[in-house]
Amino acid sequence: MHIKLLLLLLHLYAGFLLLLPLLRRASASAVVTHLPGFDGPLPFYLETGYVDVEEATGTELFYYFVESERSPSTDPLIIWLTGGPRCSGFCGLAFEVGPINFVLAPYDGNLPQLVYNQYSWSKIASIIFLDSPSGSGFSYARDPEGYDVGDMSSSLQVVTFLNKWLDDHPRYRSNEFYLGGSSYAGKMIPLIAQYISEGNEQRKHPVINLQGYLVGNPITGSKFDDFNSRILYSHGVGIISDQLYEAAMENCKGNYISTHNALCAGVLNKIEKLISELDDDHILDDKCVSDSPQHVNDDASRNRFLSEENIKPSVPSPHPTINCFSYRYYLADIWANEKVTRDALQIKEGTIGEWIRCVNGLPYTEDVPSSIPYHFNHITRGYRVLVFSGDHDPVVPFLGTQRWVRSFNFSIVDDWRAWHVDGQSAGFTVEYDNHLTFATVKGGGHTAIRHQPKQGFAMGQRWLDSKPL
To answer: Where is the signal peptide (predicted)?
Structure first.
């Protein structure tokens, strides 16, 4: 009896080993025709899936792919990354350039509703929204070591993802390819672009038809993003007074990061208090409570990586009120943690417990001190680059971004001017040689397209079509 049982177990184990490669295939994808909360069939092509990017740790990155609604065979292919690090790519799908939005209605206990976004960039391009790095959204690792990543390692994983995804979708290899994203993704994108371009030149992988990238309110990790630019911006828009600004200049000597005396420290404390009165992402928005728990430690970490069968979605309390933009995030937290949603998206059971829009608390190494050298190297190689900034962003003010763009000392091709949508100024722009464009988005916050979708769509369409803004 024991021998027969042992043989049966060995037979089952051998079958599992044969099945294991199939479970790890890069082509683990599914076409999604209906989404919970969306009325009727989706009016666009949506595919979701996983790609294995690190065999040793069993790291698999989850993605949403939306095919262009215009001309998939000739329109550009974009991979859209989100900030954080470790905010889900779903942010790009539902709050930035993707084809769905949440219906703004008070939560009544029923599943939040979705509608089509009329300003979706899927009208002009095919877009991959990626949960990167591991631990973001529905991306996971079988070995906990897989969650210990940084700027460089996660960038290389994105390159691995792209090569495997394109191997499984060869019809897109000839399409023009761009990287796009906002906030912390703006730091990662030039690094990823560098790896791709070097890989193309050294024939490390099949050629990816990289044409350039676009980054919004991009973090660089450099001095241009620091509190110095925030103070300049805060004074310019009337958050701090002339007297406070002059006192800061006199006592801090232009260095608002390292305080060397009590007078400087006192002034900066007053400035910080005034800035804290505002919303973090947009100076005109109401200051609201957080949409969801964001930390992954202690009980939260156990919830994050336990099987979803053992998790009851947490409804944050207190939650944002409906006048807050972050109310949409609150709805997303509820929607993504419903079993019917996970079934529709084909989420692998037992990989992620509670879905959290932006995860903190997992190890992450910021091993790229500044992305500016990568911007410079990439731009001078002849790739097209669009850098845009919402002019109401207090986190990465356009003044700091404009400073590092100007630090390249490129010649101006088209001098500072307004760009328009429907006959009205939508912001201001300047074009430099080496195919570099800088633009502001009037009324935009830290994620400019999120606040100004119509203007953002017009900007993206013109730039991707190689037309002046």
So the answer is: 1-28
Is residue 183 flagged as an active site residue? yes
Q: In CATH, which of 3.40.50.1820, 3.40.50.300, 3.40.50.11320, 3.40.50.2000 is domain 385-464?
A: 3.40.50.11320
Among residues 126, 136, 182, 183, the one annotated as catalytic is 183
Domain boundaries, the chain: 26-220+281-384, 240-275, 385-464
CA distances from 108 to 21, 101, 114, 151, 318 (A): 44, 18, 15, 40, 15
Quick check: helix, strand or coil at residue 459? helix
Per-residue pLDDT in tens (0 to 9) along the chain, 469 residues:
344 333 322 332 333 333 344 344 445 789 999 999 999 999 999 999 999 999 999 999 999 999 999 999 999 999 999 988 999 999 999 999 999 999 999 999 999 999 999 999 999 999 999 999 999 999 999 999 999 999 999 999 999 999 999 999 999 999 999 999 999 999 999 999 999 999 999 887 789 999 999 999 999 988 777 678 888 999 999 999 999 999 988 888 777 777 678 998 899 999 999 999 998 899 999 988 765 544 444 443 444 444 444 334 444 446 889 999 999 999 999 999 999 999 999 999 999 999 999 998 899 999 999 999 999 999 999 999 999 999 999 999 999 999 999 999 999 999 999 999 999 999 999 999 999 999 999 999 999 999 999 999 999 999 999 999 9
Q: Where are the beta strands (DSSP E) in 69-148?
A: 77-81, 100-102, 114-116, 126-130, 140-141
Determine the longest span between alpha carbons in the chain, in angstroms: 89
Q: Which two tokens stand for residue 173?
A: 């290899």
Catalytic option among 378, 392, 393, 451:
393
| Entry pTM | 0.89
393 is catalytic: yes
355: nearest Cα among 117, 98, 94: 94
From the list 169, 392, 446, 451, the catalytic residue is: 446
Tell me phi and psi for residue 428, to 5 degrees: -135, 150
DSSP 191-246: HHHHHHHHHHHHTSSSPP-EEEEEEES---SSGGGSHHHHHHHHHHTTSS-HHHHH
Angstrom distance (rounded) from CA 384 to CA 363: 33
